[in-house]
C-alpha cells in the first residue's frame, strides 16, 4: 500500500520511538470512494448499503487516520479537497486490487481450475496420457494441464522443489515428504522374436528369467530398467549375467527384439502400442503370480490440493479399469 495512503501522524510512546501509524480499514476506503463518486452522503450510503451516519463516521475516521482533510463539507454539497482528489484514485486502486484478490481466492478454492503441472515418466506417458488428457478435456475443462515427461529422479526433484504439482509414475518411491496415491498394478510380459522358445507361452515360470540372454534393457536412469533387473534377480538371475543396455526408449527396445538381438520385459499397458508395429515379435505371459509394477500418483505430503488430487485419482481409476491392469481400491 502506498505511503500516501498509510502515512499518518505517529504517536510517540512514553519515552520511546514513535508507534507505527495506523492503517486505514477497507470499510473506510469504501466509504470515502463512494462519497468521492457521488459527492453526496445519502446517495453514497445507499450505493454501498451503509447507513449515512456510519458512512460519515467512516470517512471522518479515515481523515483522522491519514491526518489529512479529504472532503470540504457545506450545507448544500460535498466537494473533494485537493488531497482528496489525489487519494481517491489511490483508494480505488486499493479496492480494485482487493477485489481481484478475492476473485483469485474464489477461483483457487474451486477444484480442478487453474494450472496443474503433471510430471510423467517415459514408460508411462505414451500409454496412459491419452486417458489422462481425455479425462481432463471431458470432465475438467477449466483445468490448465501442463505435462512434463522426465525420468523419475528429475520428476521427484521437480515435485519437492515446487516446479511440479503431481507425478504419474511407478512406485514405491520411499522419498520422505512425498505421498503416493495408488492407481493400479500391471504385469510384465516377455517380448521375444517369433522363433524364440518362449514365444506365445502363457505359463512361463519366473525361473526362466535366470537364463535369458541377451536381456535388452533401457538406459541407466529409467526406473523400468531397475524394475526389470529386480524381477530377474528375484527369479535367481545372477548380477553377472549378460545384459545389453542399448535403448533410450521402449520403442527402440522392441525394435531391437524384432531384429533378433535379444528379449525384453514390457509392462502390459505398453504391449499393444509397442508390438503392434511389427509382425516379427511374439509375447510370452508369466504364470501367476506374474511379476508386476504399481503405477500411482505422487504429491507432496500435506499438499494444499490433496483432496483434489485424490478425486483425480479416483476418476483415473475408473478410466484405467478398461486397461489390462488391476485397479487398486482407493
Walk me through this protein's architecture.
The protein has helices spanning 3-6, 26-38, 41-48, 52-66, 82-109, 125-139, 152-161, 223-234, 250-258, 268-275, 306-320, and strands spanning 71-73, 78-80, 114-120, 143-149, 166-171, 178-193, 215-218, 243-247, 264-267, 281-284, 292-300, 326-327. With 330 residues, it is α/β, with parallel strands linked by helices. Strands 3, 4, 5, 6, 9, 10, 11 and 12 form an 8-stranded mixed β-sheet that branches. Strands 1-2 form a two-stranded antiparallel ribbon. A two-stranded parallel sheet has the order 7-8.
SS content category: alpha/beta
Order of helices and strands: HHHHEEHEHEHEEEHEHEHEEHE
What composes the largest sheet?
Answer: 8 strands, mixed
The residue-averaged pLDDT reads 86
Beta-strand level of the residues, as a percent range?
15-25%
Per the principal axes of the C-alpha atoms, what is the gross shape?
A: rod-shaped
Q: Percent of residues in helical segments?
A: 40-55%
Question: Using DSSP, what is the number of strands?
Answer: 12
Oligomer: single chain
Ranges where pLDDT stays below 50 over 5 or more residues in a row are 1-10
Q: Rounded to an integer, what's the Rg over CA atoms?
A: 33 Å
Q: In DSSP terms, counting alpha (H) and pi (I) runs of 4 or more, how many helices?
A: 11
How far the N terminus sits from the C terminus, by CA atoms, comes to 47 Å
Region (Disordered): 1-23
Protein name: Probable hydrogen peroxide-inducible genes activator
Organism: Streptomyces abikoensis
Domain HTH lysR-type: 24-81
Amino acid at each position: 500500500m502506498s505511503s500516501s495512503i498509510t502515512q499518518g501522524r505517529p504517536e510517540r510512546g512514553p519515552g520511546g520511538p514513535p508507534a507505527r501509524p495506523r492503517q486505514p480499514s477497507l470499510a473506510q476506503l469504501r466509504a470515502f470512494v463512494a462519497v468521492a463518486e457521488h459527492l453526496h452522503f445519502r446517495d453514497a450510503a445507499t450505493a454501498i448499503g451503509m447507513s449515512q451516519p456510519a458512512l460519515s463516521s467512516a470517512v471522518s475516521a479515515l481523515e483522522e487516520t491519514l491526518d489529512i482533510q479529504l472532503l470540504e463539507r457545506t450545507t448544500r454539497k460535498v466537494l473533494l479537497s485537493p488531497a482528496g482528489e489525489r487519494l481517491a484514485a489511490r483508494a480505488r486502486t486499493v479496492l480494485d486490487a482487493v477485489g481481484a484478490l478475492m476473485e483469485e481466492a474464489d477461483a483457487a478454492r474451486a477444484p480442478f481450475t487453474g494450472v496443474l503441472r503433471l510430471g510423467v515418466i517415459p514408460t508411462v506417458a505414451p500409454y496412459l496420457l491419452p486417458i489422462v488428457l481425455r479425462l481432463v478435456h471431458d470432465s475438467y475443462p477449466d483445468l490448465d494441464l501442463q505435462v512434463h515427461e522426465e525420468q523419475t529422479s528429475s520428476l521427484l526433484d521437480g515435485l519437492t522443489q515446487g516446479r511440479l504439482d503431481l507425478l504419474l509414475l511407478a512406485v514405491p518411491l520411499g522419498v520422505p515428504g512425498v505421498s503416493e496415491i495408488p492407481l493400479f498394478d500391471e504385469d510384465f510380459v516377455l517380448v521375444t522374436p517369433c522363433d524364440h522358445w518362449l514365444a506365445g507361452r502363457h505359463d512361463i515360470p519366473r525361473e526362466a528369467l535366470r537364463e535369458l540372454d541377451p536381456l535388452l534393457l533401457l538406459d541407466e536412469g529409467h526406473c523400468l530398467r531397475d524394475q526389470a533387473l529386480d524381477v530377474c534377480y528375484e527369479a535367481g538371475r545372477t548380477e553377472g549375467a549378460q545384459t545389453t543396455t542399448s535403448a533410450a526408449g521402449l520403442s527402440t527396445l522392441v525394435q531391437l527384439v524384432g531384429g533378433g538381438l535379444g528379449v525384453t520385459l514390457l509392462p502390459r499397458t505398453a504391449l499393444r502400442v509397442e508390438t503392434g508395429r511389427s509382425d516379427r515379435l511374439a509375447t510370452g505371459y508369466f504364470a501367476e503370480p506374474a511379476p508386476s509394477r504399481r503405477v500411482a500418483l505422487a504429491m507432496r505430503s500435506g499438499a494444499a490440493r490433496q483432496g483434489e488430487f485424490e478425486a483425480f485419482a479416483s476418476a483415473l481409476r475408473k478410466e484405467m479399469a478398461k486397461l489390462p491392469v488391476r485397479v487398486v481400491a482407493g
